[in-house]
């Protein structure tokens, strides 16, 4: 059997940006991850093959400061490692590593206890504290706490073999488990946007749309491999169960849903709040454009990553038709 993927970026007008700091920063950050000893030999090889350094270079392509790029690269690497680790843990163990992670993030000046799980040391990164404003750091810490709470909820669903009952309830959790909110927080580092503007409903609505495009775009590209290994935390799978659809019909449904959100996002980009000055207006425009770039980079990397598509399986080259993988469960 085969699966036809929707061309969800057919009308997406934002092109890929690329940071010039990729090569050096990526190698340094990957070496840091390897030094922690969390990944075994084969897993470290797979981690390197996924090329998260390239991912960081395009989703944070507007960063011109190498220090900013290094913080972003460390966060992306950390999140992918933590995601793969937590995906294999029962809820109780997930609570343990989440508590260690949050404590290390908050108490970054304190050395970790000997014998503790290495996620503690992985989260004790000083770089973010040195380059971000107090407001951005506070926002990031708040959102990272929400991310860890959501990861625990996902683990509880996994333990119970529960599939979220509707797309809306699934997305409420997925926006957090994807950690995209935390990643968007880093986009603010180069800018000086007051909280009153960031809290404006027009900005929060655009951020929400960006989160949905990132999460569902990833779900569409990762669906095939995730359904094969029995994962259920995917919007296509949720829609299959909610509406009684086949995998192809559910994929088609989410493709239409995504394209509608693209139109909504582009409209929202033209409806920004009053900013009080040309300078601030430019800052806000650069921030929302950075969100659009994150959506672009997330999708473009996913298409080219062997994390979702094995070597020789190019969705564009095959006219978006891929073999439907057999379930291993």
UniProtKB/TrEMBL annotation:
Pfam families: Terpene_syn_C_2. Belongs to the terpene synthase family. GO terms for biological process: isoprenoid biosynthetic process. It comes from Mycena albidolilacea. InterPro entries: Isoprenoid_synthase_dom_sf, Terpene_cyclase-like_2. Its cofactor is Mg(2+). Gene3D superfamilies: Farnesyl Diphosphate Synthase. This is Terpene synthase.
């Amino acid at each position: 059997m085969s699966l036809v993927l929707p061309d969800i970026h057919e009308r997406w007008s934002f092109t890929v940006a690329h940071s010039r700091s990729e090569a050096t920063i990526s190698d340094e950050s990957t070496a840091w991850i390897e030094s922690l000893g969390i990944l075994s030999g084969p897993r470290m090889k797979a981690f390197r093959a996924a090329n998260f350094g390239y991912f960081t270079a395009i989703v944070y392509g507007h960063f011109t400061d190498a220090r900013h790029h290094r913080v972003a690269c460390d966060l992306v690497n950390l999140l992918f490692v933590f995601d793969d680790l937590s995906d294999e843990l029962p809820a109780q163990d997930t609570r343990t590593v989440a508590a260690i992670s949050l404590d290390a993030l908050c108490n970054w000046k304190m050395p970790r206890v000997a014998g503790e799980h290495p996620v503690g040391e992985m989260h004790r990164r000083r770089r973010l504290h040195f380059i971000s404003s107090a407001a951005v750091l506070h926002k990031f810490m708040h959102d990272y706490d929400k991310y860890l709470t959501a990861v625990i909820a996902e683990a509880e669903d996994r333990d119970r073999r529960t599939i979220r009952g509707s797309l809306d309830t699934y997305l409420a959790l997925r926006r957090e488990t994807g950690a995209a909110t935390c990643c968007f927080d880093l986009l603010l580092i180069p800018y000086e946007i007051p909280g009153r503007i960031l809290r404006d409903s027009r900005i929060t609505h655009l951020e929400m749309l960006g989160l949905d495009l990132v999460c569902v775009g990833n779900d569409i590209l990762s669906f095939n491999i995730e359904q094969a290994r029995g994962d259920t935390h995917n919007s296509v799978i949720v829609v299959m169960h909610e509406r009684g659809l086949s995998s192809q019909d559910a994929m088609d449904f989410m493709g239409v849903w995504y394209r509608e959100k693209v139109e909504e996002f582009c409209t929202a980009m033209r409806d920004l709040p009053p900013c009080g000055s040309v300078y601030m207006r430019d800052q806000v425009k650069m921030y929302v454009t950075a969100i659009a770039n994150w959506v672009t980079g997330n999708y473009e990397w996913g298409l080219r990553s062997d994390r979702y598509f094995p070597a020789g399986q190019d969705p564009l080259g095959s006219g978006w038709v891929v073999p439907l993988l057999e379930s291993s469960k």
